[in-house]
Design goal:
Elements: H1 5-13, H2 17-37, H3 39-43, H4 51-56, H5 60-71, H6 77-84, E1 97-102, H7 115-120, E2 124-129, E3 138-139, E4 145-146, H8 149-160, H9 202-217, H10 231-247, H11 262-273, H12 280-325, H13 331-338, H14 352-362, E5 392-396, H15 399-411, E6 420-422, H16 426-429, H17 433-436, H18 441-453, H19 468-477, H20 484-494, H21 498-504, E7 511-515, H22 516-520, H23 522-527
Parallel strand pairs: 1-2, 5-7, 6-7
Antiparallel strand pairs: 3-4
Helix pairs in contact: 5-6, 9-10, 12-13, 12-14, 13-14, 19-20, 19-21
């Protein structure tokens, strides 16, 4: 599939020997055969396709213009090609990805290969060859063989077949960067693990060491310890010590005498230069967006207060004048007074938000904060995807056990600096007392979803239109370990929803405590990202 379908489409549509005599005739013959087979369906379509023009088409771009683009609601074939391109997704790849392309490919021209995006993504490798045409990866004349299988095998071997290699951002046992030189040394004492008890049991120290080593090697581990030996503290100190060291890990290096292909070593170099966390750029982008949102909403709030004072002063003045002239007064008089020649020199003196407020008042309509800039939400202001970091998931059967686990974290030094999120249901986390009072779990879920779809005064007040309150809650959750009760208390102070606040904080949390059912349910995992 071409990376840039528009570039590929224009290349195929250009006049030339290959296009005129090979590609287009064969493509059109196949497509028209399918169209004839389904002609009755096409004729019955409410889109009123031009059958004559379709059958006379000589280029694939004409078919896409007459059929495909109209079917999917695009302006023309070029708009359809742009929407169908995969080029914008290359930088979002987070799994090992190998791309092979020939520079003389007539269908996917080299100009449409996003070499810069491949170069900047540590999870991708681009192998370019001089010749090969379109998927013509053959070698030999008398008995040609497919050669691309060899580099694919080398790539897969480099990713999966080396147990001494591990790349945490892939989530795989194996990887492309040799971390042998930067393998974390196993702590030896309880103090190295920040264990809160000065003289722990020997089994606790051994437990933490084995847990640390298991996490470092990316292996599965099954641990047991006798009752009364402090398993929770051992799990907390062992895993969070490893996580702290892992986040501070230095970039790996690559052996200069490596005899593997250049493109494989280049792939590893990109990973090394990106450090352990490949999402640093995405994180900076998200933080800049959050700062921008706070500044904008703070300015809007100040403007609304100023507007309210202005309107209040005008209403008071109009009321005073009305009491002198007539016993009746109305919002129309307020608006008229606000726009009178005595107060203004024209609407240009007032911001768009003020004029919207006045217009709403003149029509006796409730003024919504969301009216401001409602038509100005563009992709530039859209919330970017927040990158995730390596984290520890702790699952248990009951919420009381999760609460006990968070209490144990608070006993250690990690409790004051470890972002910790506890996930639960709406029953535990809903902060809207009007909704939760007397509601069963199923009814509460339906009521919550219903209020999200409503606008105006019917919308849940704990899901504000502005983003700043939710960002403030996330900031509080990034500073310390919070159990469900702590989260609900803090959410109530900020008048936001603890249920959605907890889910919004998962990406940057170091520890996520959750019930087993959330961890084992595929739909629940996907909902949490």
């Amino acid at each position: 599939c071409p990376y840039d379908t528009e570039v590929a489409g224009r290349a195929l549509s250009a006049p030339g020997l290959l296009n005129d005599w090979l590609f287009q005739p064969n493509l059109m013959a196949t497509v028209k055969r399918l169209l004839r087979r389904n002609i009755d369906v096409i004729k019955s379509s409410p889109l009123n396709y031009d059958i004559d023009a379709i059958m006379k088409a000589s280029r694939m771009s004409e078919i896409d213009d007459l059929v495909t683009a109209r079917t999917y609601g695009h302006k023309d074939c070029w708009a359809y090609y742009r929407a169908a391109s995969s080029v914008e997704y290359v930088e979002k790849i987070r799994k090992p990805f190998l791309a092979i392309n020939a520079e003389d490919d007539p269908v996917t021209p080299i100009s449409g290969v996003p070499k810069d995006k491949f170069a900047n993504n540590p999870c991708t490798a681009l192998a370019l060859v001089k010749h090969g045409g379109h998927i013509g990866f053959f070698t030999g004349v008398m008995s040609p063989k497919i050669w691309y299988l060899d580099p694919v095998a080398e790539f897969v071997s480099a990713v999966l077949d080396k147990p001494a290699l591990i790349t945490m951002q892939f989530g795989l046992l194996g990887g492309m960067v040799d971390l042998t030189e930067t393998r974390l040394a196993t702590p030896q004492t309880a103090a190295d693990f920040s264990f809160p008890i000065a003289t722990p049991y020997a089994i606790q120290v051994e437990f933490m060491q084995r847990l640390f080593e298991t996490l470092e090697r990316g292996e599965f581990g099954i641990f047991e310890s006798p009752t009364g030996t402090g398993k929770s503290l051992s799990i907390i100190c062992g895993s969070l010590t490893w996580l702290t060291h892992h986040h501070a890990r230095a970039p790996a290096t690559i052996d200069k005498d490596d005899d593997r292909p250049v493109w494989v070593r280049d792939y590893e170099r990109k990973q090394r230069e990106s450090s352990v966390n490949p999402d640093a750029v995405a994180r900076e982008k998200y933080e800049n967006w959050a700062k921008s949102v706070r500044r904008k909403e703070s300015a809007e709030q100040r403007e609304r207060k100023q507007n309210a004072r202005r309107v209040g002063a005008v209403r008071a003045k109009a009321s005073k004048r009305g009491s002198e002239q007539s016993p009746h007064n109305s919002d129309d008089e307020v608006v008229a007074e606000y726009h009178s020649g005595e107060e203004t020199k024209g609407d240009g003196e007032y911001s768009e938000s003020v004029r919207k407020l006045l217009h709403a008042r003149s029509q006796n309509r409730v003024y919504e904060d969301s009216d401001i800039d409602s038509d100005e939400d563009t992709d530039q202001n859209a919330e970017p995807e927040e990158p995730s970091i390596s984290k520890i998931f702790y699952a248990s059967r009951t919420h009381s056990q999760l609460q006990q686990f968070i209490s144990e974290i608070k006993r250690t030094k990690f409790g004051h600096a470890t972002p910790c999120v506890t996930l639960g249901s709406r029953v535990q986390l809903c902060t809207n007392d009007e909704v939760r009072t007397g509601c069963a779990s199923a009814v509460l879920n339906e009521r919550c979803l219903e209020m999200q779809q409503n606008g105006g005064s019917k919308r849940c007040g704990h899901l504000p239109v502005q983003r700043t309150p939710m960002l403030d809650l996330k900031d509080h959750m990034q500073t310390r370990a919070m159990d469900i009760e702590d989260l609900v208390v803090q959410a109530r102070k900020l008048s936001v929803c603890a249920y959605y606040g907890a889910r919004a904080s998962v990406q940057q949390a170091h520890v996520v405590a959750l019930p087993y059912n959330m961890l084992l349910s595929r739909s629940a995992r996907e909902a949490l990202g």
